[in-house]
Amino acid sequence: MSAERLDGLTSWNADWSGLRVAVLGLGMTGFSVADTLTELGSSVLVVAAKAAKEYADLVPVIGARLELAPSGEIPDALVEHDPELVVASPGYHPDDALIAWAEARGIPVWGDVELAWRLRDKVVNPQTGRPADWIAVTGTNGKTTTVQLTASMLLAAGHRVAPCGNIGIPVLDAIRDPEGFDVLVVELSSYQLHSTSSMSPWASVVLNVADDHLDWHGSFEAYAAAKARVYTATQVACVYNKSDELTMRMVEEAEVVEGARAIGFGLGVPGPSDFGIVDGILCDRAFLEERRDSALEIATVDELALRGLGAPHTVADVLAAAALARSYGISVEAVRAALAGFSLDRHRIEHVVSAGGVTWVDDSKATNPHAAAASIRAYESVVWVVGGLLKGVDIDPLVQSAVGEGRTRVRAVVVIGVDRREVVASIRRHAPELPLFEVDHEETEDVMTAAVALAAGAAQPGDVVLLAPAAASMDQFTDYADRGDRFAEAVQKHVGGSDGDDTHEEPPAQH
């Protein structure tokens, strides 16, 4: 197929029949790609190193073929298929042998988001005659919470909305839903953005940028460049974090649709065209006519705290979501209604139990240093459970900011995970007097039992024992949810399944 014809495949109604496509990976995303393309009549070969039986059994049913091949191997079936397009699942690194093979032959490599954007007109809004608008959300931390908040606000205003993408529902499944939606709130990882070039969202946000996934991208610069792609061709609002100068520069350098506005959010007093906080009140100074000398009240920090949304980084997510929703014309009343009924997902600064004056908090979702730092800052006195799979990230800046000279917030540290050596060395370097405990158990069943026992021995009344690993979980656990569940189970066993009179007491978040 000529490059010109491939460039012309920008609609569900274009002629995709007979297009030879290689789909790399057969997880949830890879299957959605294969299923979509076979529905369009393309000739699809799925190549994967492994595949769950549920997906493998369905591949021939949908009319595709599956070739299982070890990582790094170029199977003969792929060469014989002679693909005109490769669609790679997010887990395939840019330097993967299969990606390199395709690029060396001049074969375009897309991701599922690029494909979905081109096919988004399968179902159109009968009132407008247009497909669903996209609101795109990325960042190192807070993506899922912000997506869920934004979707809740749009739903409260009566819109048909789907949170999708990296949040767990493939965007291809959302654009193929026969009922259709008014708007999709799409969580995008840096992996997905790396291979996306055509998307033009209604509004977009980079919540924050810090070292993460450097093993995948190769450098911080490449990681940040992938995140910045979310702003390209934004139509209405580029939302950025006023406390993260890099996100501001990304907006300044982005090629956007003429008329798109830059909207800042932050925990300080907002300027015109910003969302922020004045005397404990979250305010909108962006989407009102009199924004130079007035503001709209969204909620109070105290109200958010009652909903478990009072940690500073969560308040920032609320402000970002409000900015995205308000850019779509959502009323402040709808924003307030959504916040009144919203609660965080599990394993995100989740209160496990309070017993003997000690509060136990599961923030297993804090899988990188930036997230862990935000979690630690939410509490006054912390026994910190940290460690796991560092993914090539330097832990030292986090340790220095958390326990370095003059820092008193962290009272003791319990280190878990296969990459313990780096964490322990950093703590001993920056805080040699700090009580430090190391869990050297390799068996998954033993790790949290030992960690909880050590943390309980170090904790004093008034402390928060905080699981904020700053690392991925796949070294010793299935995923971050498994890690958090095992932590909570170990805590409940340690306190005897009874947490006394203070079961429902939440630790006070610091603002």
Measured on Cα atoms, how large is the radius of gyration?
A: 24 Å
Largest sheet: 9 strands, mixed
| Average pLDDT | 92
The strand order across the widest sheet is 7-8-6-9-10-11-12-13-14
The overall strand count is: 20
Number of domains: 3
Distance between the termini: 57 Å
Protein name: UDP-N-acetylmuramoylalanine--D-glutamate ligase
Pfam families: Mur_ligase_C (PF02875), Mur_ligase_M (PF08245), MurD-like_N (PF21799)
Keywords: ATP-binding, Cell cycle, Cell division, Cell shape, Cell wall biogenesis/degradation, Cytoplasm, Ligase, Nucleotide-binding, Peptidoglycan synthesis
Domain Mur ligase C-terminal: 347-470
Structure write-up:
The radius of gyration is 24 Å and the shape is globular. It folds into three domains: 3-110, Rossmann fold, CATH 3.40.50.720; 116-340, UDP-N-acetylmuramoyl-L-alanine:D-glutamate ligase (3-Layer(aba) Sandwich), CATH 3.40.1190.10; 350-502, Protein-Tyrosine Phosphatase, Chain A (Alpha-Beta Complex). It has 20 helices and 20 strands. The protein has a nine-stranded mixed sheet, with helices on both faces. Strands 15-16-20-17-18-19 form a six-stranded mixed sheet, sandwiched between helices. The protein is 36% helix and 18% strand. Helix 7 (143-156) crosses helix 15 (332-340). With 511 residues, the chain is α/β, with parallel strands linked by helices.
